[in-house]
């Protein structure tokens, strides 16, 4: 992270590009991810599938002050099948979906003509669901060994420092690192195992300072007027 920040500063010193952060500019930012894998041996098969979409649309309400909306959709599937013998198999499935929406305000403070420090404040609502099922197939019939449903709602108010390096007057490379946040978390879970049903609920509120790698973000933005 430190090497990246130093590199951006050095590049900014020796290059010059007029940034497009004037009032009335529209900013489009987004990320799209897709992964899939399959592992197979004579007795088992493992499959993983995941895709995510994270669009963001902003507007410069005044020079160097951007306001906008964000969204996230993330879907994950995992399946594992294991043959114990010719008559018996075990199946494990997990599915997860996350949806999020939010609003943000971002301030640019230019250090050079094309390198700006940014401070972003945002409010986000996340909803996450996950189901896990494990069952056994024997002599052509199946019975459930384990079944779990997990649901999480999360409300976040956060501030994030960062840098924006303008590759041209329309494209910037953005990075943030570190998050100070206030979160309200609600969890509900139902688990069925060995004919027993367990229910769990929890509500928490917390202030958090996150300086781990999970707070690091790198992306591109496009500016048009």
Automatic annotation (TrEMBL):
Domain Outer membrane protein beta-barrel: 6-211
InterPro entries per the UniProt record, alphabetical: Beta-barrel_OMP
Signal peptide (UniProt feature, chain positions): 1-19
Assigned keywords, A-Z: Signal
Pfam family, one: OMP_b-brl
Entry protein name: Outer membrane protein beta-barrel domain-containing protein
Species per Swiss-Prot/TrEMBL record: Pontibacter ummariensis
């Amino acid at each position: 992270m430190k090497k990246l920040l130093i590199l951006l500063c050095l590049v900014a010193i020796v290059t010059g590009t007029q940034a497009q952060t004037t009032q009335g500019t529209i900013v489009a930012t987004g990320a799209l991810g897709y992964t899939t894998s399959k592992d197979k041996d004579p007795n088992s098969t493992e499959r993983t599938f995941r895709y995510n979409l994270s669009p963001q649309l902003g507007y410069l309400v005044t020079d160097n002050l951007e306001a906008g909306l964000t969204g996230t959709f993330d879907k994950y599937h995992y399946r594992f099948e294991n043959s114990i013998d010719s008559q018996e198999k075990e199946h494990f499935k997990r599915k997860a979906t996350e949806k999020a929406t939010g609003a943000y305000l971002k301030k640019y403070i230019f250090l050079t003509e094309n390198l700006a420090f940014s401070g972003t404040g945002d409010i986000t609502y996340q909803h996450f669901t996950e189901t896990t099922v494990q069952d056994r197939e024997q002599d052509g019939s199946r019975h459930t060994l384990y079944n779990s449903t997990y649901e999480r709602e999360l409300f976040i108010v956060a501030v994030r420092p960062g840098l924006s390096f303008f590759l041209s007057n329309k494209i910037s490379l953005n990075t943030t690192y570190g998050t100070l946040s206030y979160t309200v978390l609600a969890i509900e879970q139902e688990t069925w195992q060995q004919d027993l049903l367990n229910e769990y609920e929890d509500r928490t509120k917390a202030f958090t300072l996150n300086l781990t790698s999970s707070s690091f973000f790198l992306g591109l933005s496009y500016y048009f007027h």
